[in-house]
């Protein structure tokens, strides 16, 4: 009888871990950024993004993610800043309405830590990036958190008089918290 109970407990534990998180809860998720302007740290976020996600912690290398961020949904904390950043010298949202990240691989680092490699495209320029992330699950809800730094010049963000880094720094830290549920 003890063997049957133990076998059932093991089978239940293994099947509980085989959950695929694939439905992103946009209202519980955030994509933010931090940069330096004249030596002062400035925060902002994007109000709209869409995603396709497939992640099973029992099979992390099979994970896939595609994120499209609506660049015109930028919120810098000031309407005039939002308008400036959406303009031609910065995001040029009329010509390039979205930024896109497409994963190519997921590597487990142990302890709910992962490296997600992929390509980030902004303003028609694409760069390979490796994004460190953590994952935590509670029932059918999973949360991915992480951050990585891009150089805005690599994507032609801030052209013309903004191309120098004396007012706005080149490094931009992207932070995310993505909540997803299983089907």
How would you characterize this protein structure?
It contains two helices and eleven strands. The longest helix has 16 residues, at 2-17. The chain is 13% helix and 53% strand. The protein is mainly beta. It has helices at residues 2-17, 79-86, and strands at 21-24, 30-37, 40-46, 49-54, 64-70, 74-75, 98-110, 113-122, 125-138, 141-151, 168-182. The model is unreliable at 4-16 (pLDDT under 50). The chain has one domain (20-182): Beta Barrel (Lipocalin), CATH 2.40.128.
Highlighted features:
mainly beta, single chain, eleven-stranded antiparallel β-sheet, Lipocalin, 183 residues, 2 helices, elongated
Tally the beta strands. 11
The structural domain count equals 1
CATH topology: Lipocalin
Q: How many individual helices?
A: 2
What's the mean pLDDT score?
A: 91
Class derived from helix and strand content = mainly beta
Please identify, by name, the CATH architecture.
Answer: Beta Barrel
Rg from alpha-carbon coordinates = 19 Å
Major beta sheet summary: 11 strands, antiparallel
CATH superfamily label: Lipid/polyisoprenoid-binding, YceI-like
| β-sheet strand percentage | over 45%
CATH class: Mainly Beta
User: Which descriptor suits the 3D outline?
Assistant: elongated
Order of helices and strands: HEEEEEEHEEEEE
The first-to-last residue Cα distance is: 34 Å
Helix content: 10-25%
């Amino acid at each position: 009888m003890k063997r049957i109970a133990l076998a059932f407990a093991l089978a239940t534990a293994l099947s509980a871990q085989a959950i695929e998180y694939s439905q992103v809860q946009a209202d519980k998720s955030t994509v933010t950024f931090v940069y330096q302007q004249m030596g002062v740290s400035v925060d902002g976020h994007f109000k709209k993004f869409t995603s396709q996600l497939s992640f099973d912690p029992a099979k992390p290398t099979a994970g896939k993610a595609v994120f499209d961020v609506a660049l015109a949904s930028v919120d810098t904390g000031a309407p005039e800043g939002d308008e400036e950043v959406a303009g031609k010298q910065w995001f040029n949202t009329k010509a390039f309405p979205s930024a896109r990240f497409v994963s190519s691989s997921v590597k487990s680092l142990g302890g709910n830590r992962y490296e997600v490699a992929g390509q980030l495209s902004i303003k028609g320029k694409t760069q390979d990036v490796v994004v460190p992330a953590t994952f935590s699950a509670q029932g059918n809800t999973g949360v991915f958190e992480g951050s990585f730094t891009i150089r805005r010049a690599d994507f032609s963000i801030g052209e013309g008089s903004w191309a120098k880094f004396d007012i706005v720094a080149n490094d931009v830290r992207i932070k995310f918290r993505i909540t997803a549920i299983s089907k």
